[in-house]
Design goal:
There is one protein chain. With 99 residues, the protein is mainly alpha-helical. 44% of the residues lie in helices and 0% in strands. The longest helix has 25 residues.
């Protein structure tokens, strides 16, 4: 007869990591799945909010002022829109090299 108590049971080996979590794969996206293209931001951005706010303020000034006629409003609105489009283009261009 043996006087040694039995040892603790052997622990099962840890499960293997999923294939998309290997070393060297970098950022894998919001859902932790591999991405092949650009990662888009969450809908709604600060530029759009400022653009809409500026458009509303410009419309209020146009409606309340006698010095700003429809042609002036259209011109300012055009410049505001051009600025918004350029800012979005710059924001997207800055993210091209991040991948």
């Amino acid at each position: 007869m043996s006087t040694m108590p039995p040892g603790p049971p052997a622990a099962p080996p840890p499960p293997p990591p999923p294939p998309h979590e290997g070393p060297g794969l970098g950022y894998t996206g919001l859902g932790r799945t591999a991405t092949t293209g650009a990662i888009l931001p969450v809908p709604g951005n600060a530029e759009l909010a400022i653009y809409l706010l500026a458009t509303i303020v410009l419309a209020i000034i146009w409606a309340a002022s006698e010095q700003l006629e429809a042609h002036g409003f259209a011109t300012l609105f055009t410049y505001l829109t051009i600025g918004y489009i350029v800012s979005r283009g710059l924001a997207k261009a800055s993210r091209v090299l991040e991948q």
